[in-house]
Design brief:
- The chain is 40% helix and 20% strand.
- With 254 residues, it is of the alpha/beta class.
- It binds adenosine-5'-triphosphate and magnesium ion.
- Magnesium ion binds next to α1.
Length: 254
């Protein structure tokens, strides 16, 4: 198997800060329980997936200039992670034009030392991932996506645009997931009205995308994201991973 045989799973939203990176980690952890998976931050302008994973510092590069991935312990497996954040210095603005971004992504996808048997590559993307989807598609011909949204009007609007953009690109959307819907008081555990599931369900129904569930708002997702997604999201991430395997089954049967 080569990297081009891996299925690319985009985690998109159309809007910043709604949980793409958190959900990418949760999905990768669940998939890791089922088979070999890698995790790639395709956000070349503001890569920060590696911070959520607690991975920082320089990545090793071989004599030919090929970067090595870094391992993250997820789902009981060592998951290889690649990010342009490993190659950029902290705090230095990344101001590459689109074409350079595309070739940087291509370099990371193609030239990094990925394991040969990778079955899935989870792709955490920037809020408006036109360039990154185009770049990913060149190297990973089989791409599908999830869309993450909060329940406020602007998240929903941007998510709606994203669903249509994916449709125009011919990328299958395997499901819509909600984030920061419902909350428990971190002090007393009482349920707090925060966000609502209904608008997300409504958008999913209107756009014909399966609604798969949601995560609540809770500080643990910010403070211990890797632990939190593996201990408080198993049903939702299990549902997402089921959709990936279902879609994969169709591909392999072709
Ligand atoms: N359900 C949640 N409860 C509390 N905090 C959350 C939740 N989901 C995400 N966060 C926190 O909100 C911040 C934004 O989440 P995340 O980085 O996953 O969003 P993103 O969509 O990837 O953002 P960007 O567009 O900047 O890449 C992070 O600090 C994350 O830990
Ligand atoms: Mg992110």
């Amino acid at each position: 198997m080569s990297l081009a045989d891996a299925l690319g799973i985009l985690v998109t939203s159309g809007k910043g800060g709604v949980g793409k990176s958190l959900f990418s980690i949760g999905l990768a952890a669940e998939l890791a329980r089922r088979g070999p998976v890698g995790l790639l931050d395709l956000d070349t302008r503001s890569p920060n997936l590696h911070y959520l994973l607690g991975l920082s510092g320089d990545v090793e590069i071989d004599a030919g200039g090929r970067p090595y991935t870094k391992p993250a312990a997820l789902g009981g497996r060592s998951v290889p992670v690649m990010s342009s954040g490993f190659l950029a210095e902290d705090g230095v603005p990344i101001t590459m034009p689109g074409e350079e971004i595309r070739s940087a992504i291509a370099g990371e996808i193609v030239s990094a030392h990925w394991p040969a048997d990778l079955r899935w590559l989870v792709l955490d993307v920037d809020p408006a991932p036109g360039d990154s989807i185009a770049a990913a598609r060149r190297w990973l011909p089989r791409l599908a996506a999830f869309v993450v949204t909060a329940s406020d009007v602007s998240s929903l609007q941007d998510c709606h645009r994203m669903v249509n953009a994916l449709r125009e690109e011919g990328v299958a959307t395997l499901g819509m997931v909600g984030n920061m819907i419902g909350a428990l008081c971190p002090n007393c555990g009482e349920a707090i009205a925060y966000g609502a599931e209904e608008p997300v369900r409504g958008l999913a129904a209107r756009t014909g995308v399966p609604y798969l569930g949601h995560l609540p708002w809770h500080p643990v997702f910010r403070e211990r994201p890797v632990w939190a997604v593996q201990n408080h999201g198993s049903e939702l991430f299990g549902e997402m991973a089921d959709r990936v395997e279902e879609w994969e089954g169709k591909w392999r049967a072709r």
